[in-house]
Amino acid sequence: MKFSYYLLACLCPIILFSSCKKSNDEISPDTKSSFTIEFENQVSGSPLVLNTATYKNANGDDFKINVFKYYVSNIKLSKADGSSYAIPESYFLIDASKSESTHITLNDVPAGDYTKIEYTIGVDYARNFAGAQTGALDPINGMFWTWNSGYIFVKLEGTSPQSKAANNLLTFHIGGVVDPNNTIRTFATDINAANPLRVRADGKPNMHFIVNAGALFTGKTNINFGTLNFTMGGANSVLVADNYANGMFRLDHIHN
Amino acid sequence: MLKKTYIIAVLCLCIAMMYACSKNQDNEVPADVNIAFRVPANFPAPAYHFEDNKLTNAGFALGKKLFYDARLSADKSVSCGSCHQQFAAFANLDHKVSHGVENCQGKRNAPPLFNLAWQKAFFWDGGVKNLETSPLNAFTDTCEMRTDIATVIAFLKQTAPYPELFQKAFGTTDINSQLILKSLAQFTGVLVSGNSKYDQVVRKENSAAFTSTELAGYNLFKDKCASCHTEPFFTDFSYRSNGLDVQSADEGRSHITGVATDFGKFRVPTLRNIEYTSPYMHDGRFYSLDEVLEHYNSGVKPASNLDPLLKNGIPLNTLEKEQIKAFLKTLTDHEFIKNTLYSES
Q1: Which residue in chain B has the smallest CA separation from A146?
Q2: Annotated binding site of B for heme c, which residues?
Q3: Alpha-carbon distance B81 to B187, whole Å?
Q4: CA dihedral B332, B334, B339, B344 (to 10 degrees)
Q5: Tell me, what CATH number does B211's domain have?
């Protein structure tokens, strides 16, 4: 008898909890909540350490990175039923030198189970030509070309002994939205349906992306720093954008 | 005795300060004036939308003060107004190419600033796409004001009366690049020049009429020049080569498009107020309209991307040149050039 009392005492909270959990799963479409994304910058599997660490590109050239900044914008979430939600005004600048910028928060997202995320690597066409902007798009961030309107979508600066530029510099400023040198690329990834992004009133899930800076230099076209060490828009920027379009971001895991 | 001198000195200082203060106030728009963006009857609808940048007297006054403030540049010697002078219709008189901080010589001639609200692209090569973002290059270019926006913002935040002026214009003292650029656009966007003799003739105002020489010039102009210098802006805003050099030293339009056939092409410039915007062409190579007309008459070079319309140049005899010149001078808008609302006070 005593045993069953104990059992009851143990079971109660479990029942309570699971019933709680159950009510959580009934998602009202009007409920809005938030989730966060962490971008963990790496270079081909090693942590990105600015200024000091030496990396190797696919061509075998050594290089160091001093600056690594990129835009993630127009984030869109989709559910298994095919419906989707585009997060308005979602413009983020991730700067490897500012750790707070690598964690972003998306607010006012309708609760639901999302099984796909997509976003622009860079900034959409219209905002490149719009009037003065603030926030992530403020030209003060050093990601706006003043002589040829438009944003630098991905900026990587560093050095390589193989670079023939002055001081062995590497200057990769990728941007431009006009054909044939349009560098707007969209990244999309499915989320494992068994562990979707669960946005709930009381749950703030976190998505963890690995970002590979080395992806700029490998893929469709392996970059040789002896021949390509400087680009600011144009055909060579397209080569780099085509490289990173698929290789730069990888969804590692989600904490629900 | 010493005390007396002291009192007098303080009094003088006070008067001087009062004077300085009242001078400062001149920057503001007179109370009875309402700054407005006016579209002349012979102009089409503008490309810039003031709906997204609500025009106010305070916003305009702030933009104007920023425009004339040389303290914004690296060595505090150069303001927007140094290169864009009102008496030259906001072009740069006598400067072939722009002249920035520490006497740095740029590579291009400063264009005049008016009717910018109708432009969809800016600079000689059309690289800049929005009126609001067009001052950015001047701020940061090492050969213009050589500063950066963070420095400009820091300066404005700690320099009276700027915080107060931002408060009046935008309801905040939290100065950022957007507000700086929006106020500058309120000033530059309002610069409309559409009241020349030509405009009055076209609009049949004040019984304005061309002289017979001007009229002959107008007819020649429509025949020989207007396919590129199209009314009412006297530009069709296209990019072309008018054969200045066989091989252009400046890439021009191809720098922006990356297209080889755009090499050495520049925006067809407006000819409004042309009497006052010398020197001429993207590099300011011609000092007089006579030189320009002689170029079209005998100097057009077989550049690889030469505009087909200019294949044989534009033969002009002495009389025709005088007539065209007389017509071009009817494009001067004296009211605009002398309007004290736009002047540094």
Answers
A1: B137
A2: 80, 83-84, 225, 228-229
A3: 12
A4: 70
A5: 1.10.760.10
Nearest C-alpha neighbor of B82 from the set B133, B145, B151, B125: B145
Task: Give the range of the structural domain holding residue B330, as residue numbers without chain letter.
Answer: 197-335
Please report residues of B whose CB lies closer than 8 A to that of A148: 127-128, 255-256
User: What ipTM does this complex have?
Assistant: 0.84
- CB contact (8 A) between residue B133 and residue A140: no
Measured between CB atoms, does B177 come within 8 Å of chain A? yes
What is the domain extent for residue A158? 33-255
- pTM, whole model, 2 decimals? 0.89
Question: Would the CB atoms of B133 and A149 count as touching at under 8 Å?
Answer: yes
Q: How far is B116 from chain A (nearest CA, A)?
A: 14
In degrees rounded to 5, what are phi and psi of residue B204? 55, 50
Residue B150: its chain A contacts at CB < 8 A?
A: 140
Taking only the tens place, the pLDDT of each residue in B48-69 is 999 999 999 999 999 999 999 9
| Closest to B277 in 3D by CA, of B209, B336, B321, B210 | B336
Residues B71 and B174 in one domain: yes
Phi, psi of B269 (to 5 degrees): -80, 155
Q: Identify the sign of the CA torsion B265, B267, B271, B277.
A: negative
Q: Touching check for B150 and chain A: CB below 8 Å? A: yes
